[in-house]
Structure formats: C-alpha cells, structure tokens
Design a protein that fits this description.
By secondary structure, the protein is of the alpha+beta class. 32% of the residues lie in helices and 36% in strands. The strands form 3 sheets. The chain has a 6-stranded antiparallel beta barrel with strand order 2-9-12-11-10-13. Strand 15 and strand 16 form a beta hairpin. Keywords: Coiled coil, Signal.
C-alpha cells in the first residue's frame, strides 16, 4: 500500500524538476541572444597635423684642443729648476724651465769681444781710407794704395757684420736657456725634473700645453644623409633656418645640454673611404673648462626647416616582416585601415614621416593589440582625454 502511493509522488516531483530545468534553459538562451553582439573596441588616436619643423641633425663627435704645443728645448743644457706648477694655467711667454746658462753667457761675452775688435778694425780702416782719399787728390799716394784702403774698409765692415751675427746667435742661445710657454693654456705634467740633461730639438717633449677655451668638436656625418639633405633643399622641401643655421648645441654623455652654444667652422671636402662619412668641425666656448679633450659628445645641428612636416608618436608606427613601416588609422565609418608609410628619421620619441600619412588622419596609438584591419572601432582622442584630465584635476 505504501509502495503504490510513493511511486506517483516521485514521478510527480521528477516532472516538476524537468519542467523547471527546461524553463531556466529557455530564459538563459533568450538573454544570450539579446546581448550576444559585443560593442566595437575602444582605441586611442591622435590627429595627424602638418606643422613647421626644424630639422636638427644629431651627430657624434669628440672634443679636441683648440691649440696644442709640445714644449721642447732649443739648446742643450742641464735643467736647474722648474718654474711652473703642473696643471696650472700658463700664459704665452711665461718661463717654464731654467737651464744652466754659464757656458752660453761665456760664449756671448766672447762674441761681444770679437764684435768690439771688429768694430775697432773698421774704425781704423775708415780713417785710413779717408786719409788716402785726401792724399790721392794731390797724387801723394798711388791708385793701387787707394784701392787697397777702400777694399780693407769693406773687409772690416763685413767682419763687423759677421761678429754682430755671432753676438745675436749667442744672445738667442742664452735666452733659450729660459724655456718659455709658446701659447696660453692648461699645462700638463713635466716629463723631466731638475738635474736632467736635455738636448736641442729632442724627440721627447718636456711638457704639453693645451688651449681649451674655446675648444674644437670634431664631428662625422654620413655622406648619404648630407646628400639627401642637400637634395631636399634644392627641391624646396627644406629651407635654411636663417642666420643661426651654423649654431651647434652639445649634449653631454649624461644627457644634459651644455649651456654654451658654438658655431660650425668648416666641412671637409672629402669622404672617408672606409666609413663613408664627411668630417665637420665646430668651435665651442669653454670658459669654465667643463669640456676636456677626448670627451664623447653629441652635437645638434639645425640644418633646415620643413614648412609642412608630419611628426607622429613612434608607438603608432610598426614594422612589417619585410621591414616596411606601417600604421593603423581610423577610416570611414570608424573602420580600421592600414597605411604603408616611409619614415625619414627619429626625432626624440617620434617619427618624421616622409609619406603615407596626411594631415587630418586619425592615427591609432592605443589599443592596437585588440584590433585588426577592417573591423569597426570606437575612436577616442587621446589628446582630448589628457586635456580633460588636466581640467578635472
């Protein structure tokens, strides 16, 4: 009796459960159908603009002293004392070393004595010549004696000139015993000390002086880049930047900008056969001595101005497998379009575009990983968002 009652109850419960499951499945299926289409993904874009742009060429280079003088002795002698402090600034003509000059003083005194003797002989010959000239008028002396007196006077005059030259040489050699600075600048360390023997025009320099204010910066530029730059100027794509076109700005190894600007001095009229580069030289003020010879620097040289340049963020440009540059833009009906572009050069965190993008294009820079060509998107102006955040802040 109990069994007959229990079976209908279980069957009834099972039917209610099955009905509820079917109902729930129907409702869930209806909800998916209503909201199954996802909205277009949002992407951030920047509007491409054509603006005046100064083309600045950044070139590697090294600093070089404005003048370098290796000091060597011009006479032989023993160094008595050094007259400078290593590392100091010296002026042209400042004494640096004093050599033992006793031998040179004696040579000078001997040459001066020979000069006095030659001058005395000249005076005697001059008196004799004058007396013979007077006597010749009364035919008191022969023509031969007169000519001999005239010749003797000329001989003594030549002897005086030779003696004077020996005196000058001895005096110069005596002055050379005091070795002086040929230029002004910063002096280095001395290679010899007091008591050392030096010889005239020896190979080893006693000390080196470098003039560092101003200082040269030797730069190298690719000839191909220089050629394309000249072609762009010839075609009217670039115009010169005016009177300051030769201005040079330096970036130091730590990235800081050197406070003093320089000027471009010359460009070499030859191409290096090994590197294909052209040498340039700039002159930079260095009043504080911050630039030392041999430093690596980067020089920024304004070379032209493009009136309608396209400059876009680098993150909006990608590379194809074949190396070509491409960009995604928001096209008609907010559809993603692909553009093949040509980049001219990197400018900071941006690319200077040669072709492929035009003013007014909406270049996609954010959300690139979730889109593909041909799908609709919801474009958001990143510049407008930044402006709004600044205003709200």
């Amino acid at each position: 009796m109990r069994t007959s009652i229990r079976l209908p109850v279980l069957a009834l419960a099972a039917s209610f459960s099955l009905a509820g499951s079917l109902t729930g499945c129907g409702q869930q299926s209806g909800q998916q159908g209503a909201g199954g289409q996802m909205p277009p993904p949002q992407v951030g874009f920047v509007e491409v603009k054509a603006e005046p742009f100064t083309l600045v060429n950044e070139l590697p280079g090294r600093t070089t002293p404005y003048q370098v003088a290796e000091v060597r002795p011009q006479v032989t002698g023993i160094i008595e004392k050094r007259l400078f402090k290593e590392g100091d600034r010296v002026k042209a003509g400042q004494p640096l070393y004093q050599l033992d000059d006793k031998l040179y003083q004696a040579t000078l005194a001997s040459a001066e004595a020979d000069l006095a003797n030659a001058e005395a002989n000249r005076e005697l010959a001059k008196l004799t010549d004058g007396r013979y000239n007077k006597l010749s008028q009364s035919e008191a002396v022969s023509q031969q004696e007169l000519e001999d007196a005239n010749a003797q006077l000329r001989v003594t005059e030549a002897q005086v000139a030779a003696a004077q030259a020996r005196v000058d040489t001895a005096r110069i050699n005596t002055e050379y015993t005091t070795i002086k600075a040929p230029i002004s600048g910063r002096i280095g360390r001395s290679s010899l000390t007091a008591g050392a023997l030096v010889t005239a025009n020896q190979a080893a320099a006693l000390v080196t002086i470098r003039q560092l204010d101003p200082i040269y910066v030797d730069l190298t530029q690719s000839y191909e880049e220089l050629r394309s730059l000249r072609a762009a100027m010839a075609n009217g794509e670039l115009v010169t930047t005016g009177d300051d076109k030769a201005s040079i700005e330096l970036a130091l190894p730590d990235g800081t900008v050197y406070p003093h600007k320089g000027t471009l001095q010359f460009s070499e009229y030859a191409v290096d056969e090994q590197t294909g580069t052209v040498a340039l030289r700039a002159l930079i003020p260095n009043p504080d001595g911050a630039l030392l010879p041999g430093m690596f620097v980067r020089a920024r040289l304004p070379q032209g101005e493009r009136e309608h340049a396209i400059v876009v963020p680098q993150k909006g440009i990608s590379r194809e497998p074949n190396g070509a540059a491409s960009a995604l833009v928001v096209g008609e009906n907010n559809m993603v379009e692909k553009r093949i572009v040509k980049t001219e050069k990197a400018v900071g965190g941006k690319w200077l575009i040669k072709s492929g993008l035009e003013a007014g294009d909406k270049l996609i820079v954010d959300g690139l990983q979730k889109i593909r060509v041909g799908i609709p998107v919801t474009p958001v102006d990143t510049n407008a968002d930044v402006a709004q955040q600044v205003t709200e802040g």
